[in-house]
Amino acid sequence: MGSTSAENNGSNGVGRRDLIKRSAALGLISVPTMSFLSACASSDSGSDKKATAGTKTAKNPLAVNATAPMEFVLFDGGFGKEYAEDAVKIYEKDFPKAKVKFSATQKIQSTLQPRFNQGTPPDLIDNSGAEQMDMGVLASKKQLTDLTPLLDAPSYDDPSKKVRDTLRPGIVEMGQLDGDPVWIMYYAYTVYGVWYSQKALDSLDEKYPETWDQMLAVCAKAKKKGMAGWTYAGKYPYYLPFSLYPMIGKVGGREVLDAIDNLEPNAWKHPAVKACFEAYYELFKKGYILKGTPGIDHIQSQTAWAQGKALFIPNGSWVENESANVIPKDFNLAVSAPTGIDSSDKLPFGTIWASGGEPFIVPAKGANAAGGMEQLRIMLSEASSKNFTSKVKSLTAYNGGTTGITLTPGLTSGVAALKLAGANVLNPRLQDWYVQLQKEQIGVAGLGEMMAGRATPAETIKKIQGYADATAKDTSIKHYKHQ
Q1: Could you tell me the fold of the domain covering 193-353+429-473?
Q2: What one-character-per-residue DSSP string does 64-115 give?
Q3: Cα–Cα dist 409/150, whole Å
Q4: Model pTM?
Q5: Are 212 and 220 in contact (CB under 8 A)?
Q6: Which range, of 213-222, 241-250, 402-411, averages the lowest pLDDT?
Q7: Quick one: average pLDDT of 71-90?
């Protein structure tokens, strides 16, 4: 997995938000061992202690057995445990005779693999972190519960609305691996884009640039004031797609990103890809990238940016929490959708990448799957969503939950960016479908080399198309397609 250990075990320590967000968002996960893969294929002996169904009522639409125990295992990462413990208290209040066992661990796979083997997994798992289990394997071995009943159940707050109708764009689709069943509920919601200090932009007397000519002009102005236009995680250049992929989608349309995700032949040779690669390469050629960027990691690049050495950085919304100790109080953190090329772009300015993180699963062989789904239904209520957002500076999959709570500058900006995007929210899937292709090949070997000036856009496109073709032909890799 290349730089996984270097990135997650640096001086900042494991367990901070970078660990979970990156493991969910970038697939920094240990490759499941063969014992795990075969374990998942183990016999269907399972637990004989399945809870009998309860009585279905308006308040109990999933027919949870009111006296059955429920077990919930949470990944113990940067989001902490409190939000989940608070949601468990609501479950206990709703089902006072049910005993809930709640625990948190960073070792999801090593703790839970033996229990999947024995057919006695918990009822709800936050499957995240460095020991995230391979959800494609779990689903294919029939180890997961289809969450469609949860999605079709009345929402916790409003019985006239189904749970699925209260979720943010892309959440349901992300939980699907092959066709209709929804195996995963992504609970956190990440906004990706170009992050900057509104104060720094104001000091240049500039607005966020909407076209590439404007972007180059802003960078030229910043350079005159001794500030680089851009920096990024040079050691982990798979951060560049956070703004580059939605730019490609904006320029060429959603179907260009879909073709890339589907590993279609020549998908990377689309004119929109060429235009965007050339635009980014221009930042290098004109000297608008912070000197030394190719050699620094995510923390170093974010620190330099927070110190005002560079104006723009491609990142996800975890950056606010991750860099809280270096971002000045008057920084006025903001995020924008990527700058486009010009008015001929297919989609309007505001087109952004946002998607789910923090995957929750309900094991098929848990004793109380209905209880696990009910706990998720509670977590997807407005109150639980607000509680999460106010405690951990992140949005949830619930489409709302921000009124009446004080939002941090980055969150405020993220909410505004989503509002501006409207229906133009993109969700490229390469990073959760093809981890190695996205990280090591497109990121490090492709974009990293191009942005360091060691390869031209044309050479880079050819190289990346080759990697994509090889992935498409590799029968040992499970392939996915947009439905």
Answers
A1: D-Maltodextrin-Binding Protein; domain 2 (3.40.190)
A2: --TTS-EEEEEE-STT-SHHHHHHHHHHHHHSTT--EEEEEES-HHHHHHHH
A3: 33
A4: 0.81
A5: no
A6: 402-411
A7: 93
